[in-house]
């Protein structure tokens, strides 16, 4: 295979910036980082074109991933707009911990009753 390394397609992820205008909706304290992901077609290590650009936000604390539109992502990258609470659309929930209000022990968020003390969560 002669062409490996000459032509190539790569998926790249780039950290754009920290978001100062909003905090993570899931853990309420985490700082959000704007990431840009795109596919890059290159020839002899020269990037030729990009496509499939996607923007998303990742919470530094709980790793929740939020999806944002390309238009919005671009506007934020170019400092034309800010991320607000309403832009946060959860794509993947991070490790947000749920505690039983009765015994205060950590429980699985899918449980309706606490496995430790049996109270309703
Ligand atoms: Zn978070
Ligand atoms: Zn409990």
Short description:
With about 120 residues, the protein is mostly beta strands.
What do these coordinates show?
- This protein has one domain.
- Helix content is 7%, strand content 46%.
- It contains one helix and seven strands.
- Strands 1-2-3-4-5 form a five-stranded antiparallel beta sheet, with helices on one face. A two-stranded antiparallel sheet has the order 6-7.
- One zinc ion is lined by residues 24, 26-27, 30, 59, 61-62, 64, 94.
- Residues 24, 26-27, 30, 59, 61-62, 64, 94 line the site of one zinc ion.
- This is Zinc ribbon domain-containing protein.
- Residues 23-118 form the Zinc-ribbon domain.
- Pfam families: Zn_ribbon_15 (PF17032).
Helix coverage percent: under 10%
The helix tally amounts to 1
| Gross morphology | elongated
The residue-averaged pLDDT reads: 88
Number of E strands: 7
Distance between the terminal alpha carbons, to the nearest Å? 59 Å
How many structural domains does the protein architecture include? 1
Low-confidence parts: none
> Main sheet: which strands, in order across?
1-2-3-4-5
How many strands, which pairing sense, and closed or not: the largest β-sheet?
5 strands, antiparallel
* Rg, Cα atoms, Å: 20 Å
List each distinct ligand once: zinc ion
What is the succession of H and E elements? EEEEHEEE
Structural class by SSE content: mainly beta
Organism: Clostridium paridis
InterPro entries: Double_zinc_ribbon (IPR053281), Zinc_ribbon_15 (IPR031493)
Domain Zinc-ribbon: 23-118
Protein name: Zinc ribbon domain-containing protein
């Amino acid at each position: 295979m002669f062409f490996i390394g000459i032509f190539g397609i790569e998926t790249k992820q780039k950290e754009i910036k920290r978001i100062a205008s909003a905090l993570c909706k899931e853990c309420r304290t985490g700082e959000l980082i704007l990431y840009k992901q795109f596919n890059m077609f290159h020839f002899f290590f020269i990037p030729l074109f990009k496509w499939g650009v996607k923007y998303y936000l990742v919470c530094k604390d709980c790793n929740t991933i939020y999806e944002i539109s390309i238009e919005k992502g671009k506007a934020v990258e170019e400092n034309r707009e800010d991320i607000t609470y309403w832009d946060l659309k959860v794509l993947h929930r991070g490790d947000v911990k749920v505690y039983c209000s009765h015994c205060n022990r950590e429980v699985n968020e899918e449980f309706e009753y606490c496995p430790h003390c049996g109270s309703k969560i």
